[in-house]
UniProtKB/TrEMBL annotation:
It comes from the Bacteria. The lineage of its organism: Bacteria, Bacillati, Actinomycetota, Actinomycetes, Micrococcales. This is Iron-siderophore ABC transporter substrate-binding protein. Residues 1-24 form the signal peptide. One of its GO terms (cellular component) is outer membrane-bounded periplasmic space. Belongs to the bacterial solute-binding protein 8 family. It holds the Pfam family Peripla_BP_2. It is found in: Cell envelope. Keywords: Signal, Transport. The keyword Signal applies. One of its GO terms (biological process) is iron coordination entity transport. InterPro entries: ABC_transptr_periplasmic_BD, Bact_iron-sidero_bind. Residues 63-333 form the Fe/B12 periplasmic-binding domain. PROSITE patterns: FE_B12_PBP, PROKAR_LIPOPROTEIN.
Length: 333
């Protein structure tokens, strides 16, 4: 790089002086450079959670532990990768297709019994849980970090509750704009699916989503009644819920045995999801005369949806759920 000589510095100084005189003679001055105002610093926020508790959350939340899978999804939706997740392997099996896990979170135990020591070791800024734990459990967690408790579900307003929980996570973490954007995208996707359903001649199709379990050699069926999130979502797309029974006041889940399925309409499609090889509907019920005698089963209207879509999840999971239903039913006249 060349160095300036004293002469060159003198010439530059002279030129600068001449320029200043010329500007002064013209009665003008160099306009002041524009400055960009500094971004306001993030501040602590206080939100009211599902317990009715005012939770004060520090500014600049980054390290968050999620104790329920829907909380994981909500956090990712607003741009936060949790540093700790309850039952990482379970999440990847049951939810990882609809809402793939981001980052490499530490496993902090099970969803029902998270490890206090594992959570404390992460020194999180915030812990996000779902309603249903006892006060003592919250007290142990609050000794580590603020705890934000989501409603998780409410059979009186299932879809609205899910969206409000997402908004609450956004408000608590500075991601409310991202939450609202995701909700708008979800609602637009539902409208697109509704148009596909109408075009395919599937509008008004009766669906009954259910889980199946084998306990002590007995098959138990858990139908999703009115008030459950899944029927609330698929009804938005033009389907109807074909399960006539009632569900619990929080999740809208019912309970029946195989004989109870005789209450289904003949044209109701049974849809379900499981993980891996465990499939009660395909295996344990294959030789059950009540099951095989159901008109809808005889008509081939039983559909296993793809693994890995969390049935109690957020906007990404529910969008994937609708897509899976349409893909499963589309071949049906």
């Amino acid at each position: 790089m060349s160095q300036r000589t004293p002469l060159s510095r003198s010439l530059l100084a002279g030129a600068a002086a001449l320029t200043a005189l010329t500007l002064a003679a013209c009665g003008t001055t160099e306009p002041a450079a524009e400055t960009t105002p500094a971004e306001p610093e993030a501040s602590a926020v206080t939100v009211t959670d599902a317990r009715g508790e005012a939770v004060e959350i520090p500014a600049g939340v980054e390290d968050v532990v999620a104790l329920e899978w829907v909380a994981v999804e909500h956090l990712q939706t607003v741009g936060i990768e949790p540093v700790g997740v309850a039952d990482v392997a379970g999440y990847e099996d049951w939810a990882g297709v609809g809402a793939p896990l981001e980052g490499e979170p530490t496993d902090v135990g099970t969803r029902t019994e998270p490890s206090i020591d594992a959570i404390a070791a992460l020194a999180p800024d915030l812990i996000v849980a779902v309603a249903g734990r006892d006060d003592a459990a919250y007290a142990d967690l609050e000794a580590i970090a603020p705890v934000l408790v989501l409603q998780g579900a409410d059979a009186s307003a299932p879809l609205e509750t899910m969206l409000d929980d997402l908004r609450l996570v956004g408000e608590a973490t500075g991601g409310l704009e991202a939450a609202e954007s995701a909700i708008a995208d979800f609602e637009a996707h539902v409208a697109e699916v509704a148009a596909e359903v109408e075009e395919a001649g599937l509008a008004g199709t009766s669906l009954a989503h259910m889980d199946g379990y084998e306990t002590g050699g007995q098959v138990e069926i858990r139908p999703y009644a009115d008030g459950a999130l899944l029927p609330a979502v698929f009804e938005e797309a033009g389907f109807v819920n074909g399960w006539p029974g009632e569900g619990d006041p929080q999740y809208g889940l019912g309970a029946t045995d195989v004989e109870g399925l005789t209450a289904l309409g003949d044209d109701t499609h049974i849809i379900y999801m499981t993980v891996g090889e465990r499939d009660v509907f395909r295996d344990q019920l294959a030789s059950n005369e009540i099951w095989t005698g159901l008109p809808t089963v005889q008509a081939g209207n039983v559909h296993r949806l793809p693994d890995g879509i969390w049935l109690f999840g957020g906007v990404d999971s529910m969008a994937a759920y609708l897509d899976a239903i349409v893909a499963s039913l589309a071949p049906t006249p």
